[in-house]
Amino acid sequence: MKDTTAGAAAENAAGGGNRARSSFSHRLGRRVMQVGMLLVVFGVLWMFLYNSTSFFGFPSFSHYYFIDESPKADCESRLEGVLRNASMKDKTVIITTLNDAWAEPGSIFDLFLESFQIGIQTQKLLNHLVVLTWDQKAHARCLALHKHCHQLETKSDDNFTGEVFFMTPNYLHMMWTRTKLLGSILDMGYNFVFTDTDIMWLRDPFKEFYKDADFQIACDYFNGNSHDLKNLPNGGFKYVKSNNRSIWFYKFWFNSRNVDPRLNEQDVFNNIKTNPLVSNMKLKIRFLSTSYFGGFCEASKDLKKVSTMHANCCVGLENKVNDLKILLEDWKKYVALSENEKKQSHLSWSVPQSCR
């Protein structure tokens, strides 16, 4: 009996050990599967983040428009070379775009450059101005007058050479191409002041920018509160700092064009500026006062304050050229005054005239 009992005990012990080993193996197998699943999840997440640029529909730098189909490194070196040569110490550049219609002698581009020459403390800013040209004629004209020019090449079916009329399909395509391009410049680490070429630079505007803002934009009409999202902005003049918030915002802005393809980038901006995603990103938006950044919609009334004047609320190249010439003559009369005369002066703009 003792032998039988001892054998049974030994058998039970062995069975218990086998069950313990089986349970342990089962738990180990489950743990390995869990770890494996976690690794798969992290792998997918990493791939998502790595490709997030493409996910947002915002092509990488090599997809932007350049003068030929060069390798990515060559494309980067060309535009970035121009930006690097023109940039300020903090990697800030001033950017405008130019086509043949506005580059003709005596047209908008000549007036634009003249404003820097006759403005107060604006001549030095020409060293930081990059002109992005849409066609070969505009590029040749730019090179004859300015040192930082870069030609963009659009697709064969794009026509940005002649006068592009407001809200036509060609205009919309040009504005969205420009938005995408500016996003790529932010992605390269450059801050920029974008300026339409029909904006006259009369004083150094950097003194009037807000130090803590990510994105600052001029207004057609300003309500007096730079934080108020109800202001009516104008996309022709903006100062944007390169950081994660602004880079994300340009991607979001560009993708939002698909909601209604009939809208231009300014209208889409008005639609998305109150979007919860934008506020969640903590993007700091400020609107610039028309007292300093005026235009034909709402002029800067005090010539002692004005930094820029924009030929906005004006249709037609000839009308813009006519009124901008008058505006520069008004400015020349003002700067010719002595300092004492300027303080007592009540000079005001003679424009708009043709742009009424």
Automatic annotation (TrEMBL):
Keywords: Membrane, Transmembrane, Transmembrane helix
Transmembrane segments: 32-50
Domain Nucleotide-diphospho-sugar transferase: 125-324
Superkingdom per UniProt: Eukaryota
Compositional bias segments (type: Low complexity): 1-13
Region ranges (Disordered): 1-21
UniProt protein name: Uncharacterized protein At4g15970 family
Organism: Cajanus cajan (Pigeon pea)
